[in-house]
């Protein structure tokens, strides 16, 4: 039990809950930690006094992604706060405060320190040490061990360590660093913090401050992050991919905490980046776009959805907004009209592998590149959609012709857009004809049942399908629909109460 108390930080969690007088608390566990849910809740209840003043509810099988705070599930039990256990993307919450317990994954500090100093001797760059949040507990020991070894050994360059931004989070629709982490030691009166909303990098005086995936660090304004060697401690997971793709111009190495060895090969991540560029080019040919809602809790998700709608509309395309929980190929196959999907999710789950899907799935950043005429990819890559949120409406289009590669026409084409002062009453008709032509090219099989003629609206697409649920051929009158069982799985309403 002492191990549970230490690993899950029971005393600190209880102090947080008592200090704010929360009486209904949701404990969110990922699947791999669910086995510890019962002992953790018992230990926390004892630490809180064992009375009935605070009710604890265990949550599992989250509505979307386990790395995000499940505000949808917590709202079902009217929770006042969520205690999130395990790996977290640290995405800002919309409605509920959250307390994070990252856990304490084992780390061989001595072996990691020796590997770090070897990199320092071999590299001609300063080193920035980043880590998975579950290894943050060992950073102080690593700093101390590295400082001791540097006294007896020559270190060619500076070694800098990132810090954990916060472990407490307050809800916000405009997630600045200070709003989300009120306990931060940084000054809360810096006017420059207002600029943090739309970037993971913020200039404060003579320093450039970075915040990414729950980690924060600062470098001199005279330096560039590209000049650093990034030394990642942790697993090859979504958090590492977020760092590697965001800072894809940096040299990156990863210390494998399981094998206790250094991995320098991150070329596969660059292959991912090249594939994302291919999807951007392919998305330019799409006429009907589905906006997949991959979160209902991350602050700003409604803003980015609205921004995507405006962007798609300005590009002369049609969009549908779809809420379906965790997307998969079977779910998306129900919407064959959509030629590409834009996935609005947290930064660490935004890269959805769509190789097995009927249509590609891109991120909001990739949608901006695909649907904003004249926008070129400079190598910069953003996964966090909050960095894209803007109050300005997207430009309708570039006035000049733009040459691009068309996957439908099989060659380079030029898009010619009208001047603002020109009137084109036939624009809507031309767009409808273009959409119908694109659909006919995509589906040239006369025996196919997905399309019947030129569909112009969502209801036409529905009518063209061979199966439509409880409508059409299998239509059932409302008065003949059977009501299913109600209640909990343990005791349904039509069963006798179990003794």
TrEMBL record:
| Keywords from the UniProt entry | Iron, Iron-sulfur, Metal-binding
One MF term in the entry's GO annotations? iron-sulfur cluster binding
Cofactor(s) required for function per UniProt: [4Fe-4S] cluster
Top-level division of the source organism's lineage: Eukaryota
Pathway(s) served:
Protein modification; peptidyl-diphthamide biosynthesis
Keyword Iron-sulfur applies: yes
Look up the record and give one Gene Ontology term from the biological process aspect.
Answer: protein histidyl modification to diphthamide
Name of a matching Pfam family: Diphthamide_syn
InterPro entries linked: DHP2 (IPR010014), DPH1/DPH2 (IPR016435), DPH1/DPH2_1 (IPR042263), DPH1/DPH2_3 (IPR042265)
Task: Report the protein's function.
Answer: Required for the first step of diphthamide biosynthesis, a post-translational modification of histidine which occurs in elongation factor 2. DPH1 and DPH2 transfer a 3-amino-3-carboxypropyl (ACP) group from S-adenosyl-L-methionine (SAM) to a histidine residue, the reaction is assisted by a reduction system comprising DPH3 and a NADH-dependent reductase. Facilitates the reduction of the catalytic iron-sulfur cluster found in the DPH1 subunit.
Q: Which family does it belong to?
A: Belongs to the DPH1/DPH2 family. DPH2 subfamily.
Q: Which NCBIfam families match?
A: diphth2_R, DPH2
Q: Which PANTHER family match?
A: 2-(3-AMINO-3-CARBOXYPROPYL)HISTIDINE SYNTHASE SUBUNIT 2, DIPHTHAMIDE BIOSYNTHESIS PROTEIN
Q: What is this protein called?
A: 2-(3-amino-3-carboxypropyl)histidine synthase subunit 2
Q: Which organism is it from?
A: Lolium multiflorum
Query: What broad taxonomic lineage does this protein's source fall under?
Result: Eukaryota, Viridiplantae, Streptophyta, Embryophyta, Tracheophyta
